[in-house]
Amino acid sequence: MSGQKLIIKGGKPLNGEIKIQGAKNSALPIIAASLLCSGKVTLKNCPRISDTYASCRILSHLGCRCSFSENTLLIDTENLCCTHIPDELMQEMRSSIIYMGALLGAKGKCSLSFPGGCQLGPRPIDMHIQSLKKLGADIKEEHGEIECTALSGISGTKITLGYPSVGTTENIMLCAVTAKGKTVITNAAREPEIADLSAFLNKCGAKIKGAGSGTVVINGVKELHGCEYSIMPDRIAAATYISAAVCSRGEIALKGIEASLCESFLSVYEQMGCGIYAFDDSIYVNAEKKLHSPGKIMTLPHPGFPTDAQPAVMAAVCRTDGITIFEETVFEDRYRHVDALVKMGADIKVVGKAAVVTGQKTLYGAKVAASDLRGGAALTAAALGAEGITEISKICYIDRGYESIERDISLLGGDIKRK
Ligand code: EPZ
Fold first, then answer.
1. Which structural domain range is residue 128 located in?
2. Residues 6 or more apart from 278 whose CB is under 8 A from it?
3. 390 by DSSP, 3-state: which?
4. Which of 119, 248, 311, 355 lies 20 to 30 Å from 104 when distance is taken between CA atoms?
5. In whole angstroms, what is the distance from residue 275 CA to residue 75 CA?
6. How far is the C-alpha of 123 from the C-alpha of 387, rounded, in Å?
7. Which atom of ligand 1 is nearest to the CA of 374?
8. Ligand 1 center to residue 188 CA distance, Å?
9. Ligand 1 centre and the CA of 163: distance in Å?
10. Residue range 360-374: average pLDDT?
């Protein structure tokens, strides 16, 4: 699989409809949460991506059974017996740190190492560790190894986050859901994927209120049973395909996703001049008109503009009239897709946290490499609007979060091949 490339011939307006896949950033914490459940868990609309496969490898290593049938993932935790995750499994993705809270909640102990994942700047886990210590865990870190025990059990408490960290909010939820007593998280992350995790846990018998708001209240319960749950659609994948329509000046329909889930970024595409029409569970996008810069875009925790959509929107504005100024406030180094876009003819200047994009008439096909998951997806969108052939290497990054980006782009009429 490594060494594969995407070959894209740009210039043809996208035209078609696709179903949006299940959300990576909801599936990953929910798969980890299944460790807390005694009984079988059936996850529908689960994306088949390398990060969910990595999650299944972790669960199998811990003694669980996982099997995919199309987009349904069956998990049986009956033989969960291990609480150590080896480094090679931890290194496959950033979100493997979520197993700290899940194993503490399920078994009262765990040992693992610092997680891997996309390089977006330093990605410390200080808030994760501080928060789980407040819940009663004794955590020792040495040479990148983390040893957690909770000899006197996990007890609910009040935790105020210094920053609304998504992963930290999720780790607290997984650790506290079977704790003794009540846990209140203030300044919690408010991303929709947090609400999805809470809905899954509550369907398994948890007592969580307020997920998706800044204050989450978790009343600990003795144990959780299994359930059947359908994972929410991937709003960031939707942003990627909307950008592909904008780059190619096409018109597309995205099925299986409500516009309300995409409120934090849809207005940016409307400000560009796109026609965006919301139906019950689909979004219709018309990007055939002349498009202009949406102005200034600042990434923020939800409900602000999502950092994960920043690369896709940057690709979209490379060919809109005017100047777009990005300010990336969530990650320190999330402009690694800029060099490749500049190689394709974009005019982008990065100064610290800001990136200034001056729209150009055309982009040109080039040989580029994906630098991370969302950056690689953004290059795919940009290539569809470029003159000539673009070759994107290191697409293993893209496969971490997209089931088959070439399948979806082909269904939308794009000229794309994997080789
Ligand atoms: C989640 O990452 C997502 N990943 C990311 O999506 C997303 O970009 C991010 O949330 C923000 O929305 C998953 O859900 C699997 P954070 P996470 O903790 O949990 C700092 C994608 O492409 N921080 O909210 O790692 C951190 O360094 C991925 O799908 C600390 O300093 O994000 C960052 O600057 C990329 N100490 C900021 O907070 C900590 O202990 C936000 O991180 C934890 C975080």
1. 24-226
2. 258, 259, 260, 284
3. strand
4. 119
5. 41
6. 37
7. 22
8. 13
9. 10
10. 96
Q: Is 401 in the pocket of ligand 1 (CB under 6 A)?
A: yes
- Pocket of ligand 1 contains residue 118 by CB under 6 Å: yes
SS3 label, residue 308: helix
Contact (CB, 8 A) for 183 and 156: yes
State in Å: Cα 32 to ligand 1 middle.
17
| 16 three-state secondary structure | strand
Query: To test ligand 1's pocket by mutation, which of 166, 185, 234, 400 has the most ligand atoms within 8 angstroms of CB?
Result: 166
What is the Cα–Cα distance from 345 to 341, expressed in whole angstroms?
7
201 and 279 co-located in one domain = no
* 351 and 275 in a common domain: yes
- Annotated active-site positions, please? 118
**Listed residue (91, 3, 8, 75) closest to 37, CA to CA:** 75
Q: Choose one of 200, 226, 252: the last residue of a domain.
A: 226
| pLDDT tens-place string over residues 19-76 | 999 999 999 999 999 999 998 999 999 999 999 999 999 999 999 999 999 999 999 9
Residue 170 CA: nearest ligand 1 atom is 19
Q: Which atom of ligand 1 is nearest to the CA of 120?
A: 35
Tally of domains in the chain: 2
